[in-house]
Amino acid sequence: MSAQHGLIQRAIRWYKQPNVWIPSCFFGMFLVIFVANGTMIGVGMGSWRGLVTDDAYDKGLVYQQAIEAEQREDALGWSVDLSVEHPQPKRVDVRISLTDDQGQPLQADRVQVGFVRPTQEGYDSVHTLDALGGGTFGKTVDLPLKGLWELRIEAEKNGKAVRVSRRITVTE
Predict the structure, then answer these.
(1) Does residue 105 contact residue 134 with C-beta atoms inside 8 Å?
(2) Can you tell me the distance from the alpha carbon of 167 to that of 116, in angstroms, rounded to the nearest whole number?
(3) In angstroms, rounded to a whole number, what is the distance separating the alpha carbons of residues 122 and 172?
(4) DSSP codes, 101-157
(5) Measured between alpha carbons, how far apart are the two ends of the chain, in Å?
(6) Using an 8 Å Cβ cutoff, are 167 and 149 in contact?
(7) pLDDT tens column, 49-73
(8) How far apart are alpha carbons 101 and 136 in whole angstroms?
(9) Residue 73 in contact with residue 162, Cβ under 8 Å?
(10) In the chain, where are the structural domains located?
(11) Which residues lie across from 99 on neighbouring strands?
(12) b/e 72-93 (16+ beta carbons within 10 angstroms → b)
């Protein structure tokens, strides 16, 4: 018992020295900062979803062409109206109505909708919509996840096309 008592007495004397507290607090503060930073780095690296653009440079080179294509689409005067209903969890009924520059229904040759998950890779899909008549196209689509989806709509008639993007939230 006397050996333990002696060790405790030496520890108490060591902590009572004023020149020990200042460096101990200083190093303790940095230890807390390093542990917190290490934890945040670990969480950040572990939650990476892999969203990256492989061809960013190529997209930048053709940016002017993309602007010109958008101006041609605007000159067509076509209007795209989107209607989305959720009859069941993770299921959506997509209806698209097309009108020309005169406000008349537009019977397109092909209408496609791409469902893109902006926050995760691997769940994107493209669906060709069925013609329902009167410039209306539709389809029921089952989606793998609830949450935010970007709909990329493309309607084509006689080699001319219009592209529109809309965001929806799919509920469970």
Answers:
(1) yes
(2) 9
(3) 20
(4) TTS-B---SEEEEEEE-TT-SS--EEEEPEEEETTEEEEEEE-SS-EEEEEEEEEEE
(5) 67
(6) yes
(7) 666 677 778 888 888 888 888 888 7
(8) 16
(9) yes
(10) 2-46, 56-170
(11) 79, 105
(12) ebeeeebebeeebeeeeeeebe
What are 79-135's pLDDT values in tens digits? 888 888 887 788 889 999 988 888 888 888 899 999 998 888 888 999 999 989 888
Yes or no: say if 77 and 98 are a contact pair by the CB < 8 Å rule: no
Q: Per CATH, the architecture of 56-170 is what?
A: Sandwich (2.60)
- Tell me the sheet residues that pair with 165: 152
pTM, rounded to two decimals: 0.62
- The DSSP 8-state label assigned to residue 17 in this structure reads S
Those residues whose C-beta lies under 8 Å from the C-beta of residue 169, and which sit 6 or more positions away, are 147, 148, 149
Burial class (CB in 10 A: 0-12, 13-18, 19+), 137: buried
In whole angstroms, give the CA distance from residue 8 to residue 16: 12
Which of 21, 7, 169, 8 minimizes the C-alpha distance to 89? 169
